[in-house]
Design a protein that fits this description.
Shape: globular
CATH superfamily: Vaccinia Virus protein VP39
Largest sheet: 7 strands, mixed
Structural class: alpha/beta
Number of helices: 8
Strand content: 15-25%
Bound molecules: S-adenosylmethionine
Radius of gyration: 16 Å
Low-confidence stretches: none
Number of strands: 7
Length: 213
């Protein structure tokens, strides 16, 4: 869900730096050929991810939830020249589109793409992470936070996507809706955790920017 009206959304996009031709092509092909294209970060959020990454200039990015690689390509724009980006997705049917774009991009040699369950793969990764983009299944958000926090450098950041979950986080709880409850619990858990400071931003479906102290 977008929280601003259509005109303001358009105004934000028009007055935000353009996405590259590669990102535009990837977005178009995802919308034409891949299920659930709304999952793709898109122009505005993509430029935000790119800007944050350029501000941090990370040596090690972990992305949980690759999908068609749009956000990975945006985050990779800010990588330190010696940096790497590890990205995880459970859906190996995405391989062809990932090969065509992300793994053929100028960042390909810096990308380490894993297929499988993130809860299985994260424990096998080395520590020293500078930036995490959390964008996979919502019921596991708290697990992902707990799995990455000790692998994150002090002063490192986590960006958690969809933290407003189409506004459902402020609606009456529905016990059957596991994703909403998981996001509500995650938001509270992060805000109560003394090891981090955090700010929730109403970009697209909501992003929390979390900094490990
Ligand atoms: C919202 S999409 C990611 C969008 C992408 N970050 C972007 O902005 O373009 C979420 C992705 O998480 C993946 N996913 C869901 N559950 C997962 C799990 N348990 N482990 C790994 N990947 C998972 C899905 O296959 C899907 O491609």
């Amino acid at each position: 869900m977008d929280f601003l009206d259509e005109k303001l959304e358009e105004y934000l996009e028009v007055n935000t730096s353009e996405e590259s031709k590669e990102l535009n092509d990837l977005s178009r092909e995802t919308h034409l050929k891949v299920l659930r294209p709304r999952m793709l970060s898109g122009h505005l959020q993509g430029r935000f991810l790119s800007m944050i990454s350029k501000m941090i200039n990370p040596k090690y990015i972990l992305e949980i939830g690759t999908y068609t690689g749009y956000s990975a390509m945006c985050l990779a724009e800010g990588l330190n020249p010696e940096g790497k980006l590890v990205t995880i997705d459970r859906n190996d049917e995405l391989k062809p589109i990932l090969s065509k774009y992300l793994m053929s991009s100028e960042y390909a040699s810096k990308i380490d793409l894993h297929f499988g369950l993130a809860t299985d793969i994260i424990p096998t990764l080395e520590g020293g992470i500078d930036l995490v983009f959390l964008d996979a299944d919502k019921p596991n958000y708290a697990n992902y936070f707990n799995l990455v926090i000790d692998k994150l450098n002090p002063g490192g950041f986590i960006l958690a996507d969809n933290v407003l979950w189409s506004g459902k986080v402020v609606e009456e709880a529905n016990a059957a809706d596991k994703s909403t409850q998981a996001i509500v619990d995650f938001n509270k858990m992060v805000n109560d955790d003394e090891r981090v400071e955090n700010v929730m931003l109403p970009i697209r479906d909501g992003i929390t920017l979390i900094r490990k102290k």
